Amino acid sequence: MTRDHGGNLDAAIARLGGSPTDWLDLSTGINPDPYPLPTIPAEAWAVLPRKSDMARLCDAASRAYATPARVIAVNGAQGAIQLVPWLARPGRAAVLAPTYNEHAAALRACGWQVAEVATLDALRGTDLAVVVNPNNPDGRRHAPEALLALAQQVGLLIVDESFADPEPELSIAGQMRDNLVVLRSFGKFYGLAGLRLGFALAQGDLADRLGEMAGPWPVSGPAIEVASAALADRDWQARCITRLTEGAARLDALAAEAGWTPIGGTPLFRTYTTPDASAAQETLARHRVWSRIFPYSDSWLRLGLPPGERWAQLEAAMRAL
Asked: What SS3 class is residue 182?
């Protein structure tokens, strides 16, 4: 199975030329205006993270996500996705789709029988169910109450909240159950994907197993320092949500001028129906703007938000459509 992703700017550069700085890479849903890096103590680079350092990070995450669950730090939300298949003996799994394709791919690679289904009802009765909330790429949302009801009808429920930071009311993290695992991404909302940091939230035996599999040093000392500061910075978080929400509305207005129909999205990315997604991607690429299209749709195209100083480049590219 091909694992299709955004963030493949190298392929565009190899085909069309230019340098990475020439290009506006909007193929991922990462905050373009990242959290300002704090001063990182020299010791964070020089020694293995101590248990007290990990505890400080996980406490900051617990407060930020308002969860009573145990927080396990991992190497990005992707790191947690790779651990999920080992939480139970392989059986019948279902993934609410279309969505981020690593969930199904990771399960299949570990021997699970995976069905990709279109409704919450179709997940019921499975040994393991996966819901991304809000969903990537269509922005589909599910109320916490609906997911709690689903948890009672599946063996194990995985809720991926990688894009939930701007919409905390969607999170189920405050209402944990013993058969529930919640995944959170740090890099997307805080714009620091290169730190490779994420979290798995769980209780009881699931938390113990995740902690054991993650190992003693799953994340770096510098990541601990940066994230501990960012997760506690409520003022920056509030300003960021406002900025992202305004940016998403501005992007929707540009798309409407181009005649595109919105499918949905989050404040970090928007997905549209276009007359021909491949042609639209190619036109944007000629103006050094890289977008995301999908193997299962000829018309869907997704755009992240540009940095504040590079909206003009995107606007010029959109006018060429």
From this structure: strand
Summarize pLDDT for 42-94 with one digit per residue, the tens: 999 999 999 999 999 999 999 999 999 999 999 999 999 999 999 999 999 99
| Residue 45 to residues 7, 42, 49, 225, Cα–Cα distance (Å) | 27, 6, 9, 10
Contacts of 248 (CB under 8 A, 6+ apart): 265, 266, 267, 268, 270, 305
The answer to whether the pTM exceeds 0.90 is: yes
Q: Alpha helix (H) ranges present in the chain?
A: 9-16, 42-46, 51-64, 76-83, 102-109, 144-151, 187-190, 204-214, 221-232, 234-257, 277-286, 311-319
Distance of alpha carbon 96 from the chain centroid: 15
Cα 57 → chain centroid: 19
SS3 per-residue string spanning 267-305: CCEEEEECCCHHHHHHHHHHCCEECEEECCEEEEEEEEC
pLDDT in tens, 188-206: 999 999 999 999 999 999 9
